Amino acid sequence: MPHTPSRGVRRAVSGLATAALLALAGPLAVPAAPAAAAAGTGQVSTVAYTAAEQSAALSYWTPARMAQAGRTVDLGATGPLTKTWTGKAIPSIGRLFFVNSRGDDSWCTASAVTSGNRSVIMTAAHCARVGSSSFNTFTDMVFAPGYAKGKTPYGRYAVKATMTPRSWVENTVGDVAAMVVATPAGGKRLTDAVGEQKIAFGRAAGERIVTFGYPGTTPQRGEQLLYCVGTSAVAPENEQRVPCDLGGGASGGPWLAGFDSATGKGTLVSVNSHGAGDGGSPMYGPAFDKTAQALYDTAQRG
Q1: What is the pTM (predicted TM-score) of this model?
Q2: What is the C-alpha R_g of the chain?
Q3: What pLDDT score was predicted for residue 72?
Q4: How many CB atoms within 10 Å of residue 8?
Q5: Which one of 138, 207, 209, 236 has the fewest CB atoms closer than 10 angstroms to its CB?
């Protein structure tokens, strides 16, 4: 559920809000040719971006371009289960901007998590690359923590590496990604600046979940943080589901168990992957299994 508003109102094939369309994600006719270096070992496929590419990403995603991203989008009305977050600001959650493999501006949602290098964000794999493709990776990736109505109060962080499951690269299975962001010149490491969400693996369904995202639905159109609340349940294909109708653009947004609205913190147990279709409920997210943990462990050593 990333959204691709520029160069015409379209939805990214790799992330539209239905399981059926997720299954269609595959090699595109005209892949991008980033200078980013791709590598992979075991369960994890890594794409690294050079310092020059990181600098170019920051130059590309100006505040004006970020604010423009959702203005031409119309995904229909925000759903009845989705609410605007009006509580304490949550700077660890932000909007993840990128250029997809077709060369279009797009965005997802991501969250900063506890990590050894204080520089890891978690999101969906389809926010990093097209599934079932070794070459359709995305470029110009920038995380804007605490994004709200065109403002980036905690700055912008260029992504320097993405980690996705090899199963995603080969078979579009396992829609979760870890990313490492670069520390801005003269700035603080990410979680030193914005705080962090805890992260857990192997948690059983049945917990009360608060899930967040920046969907391109009307009237917010990606400019405000929205959320749903519900109890998770087991779903097929190693997924869980929650009652939620967040739309495109909310992909990668955190599922927080034990969320405390007074502190804005909880424990990340999954991320938004895909919905029931046309922004309908429920929302599905991948189980955070050993593969997800391998992504996270690789990222926090980066």
Answers
A1: 0.88
A2: 17
A3: 76
A4: 8
A5: 236
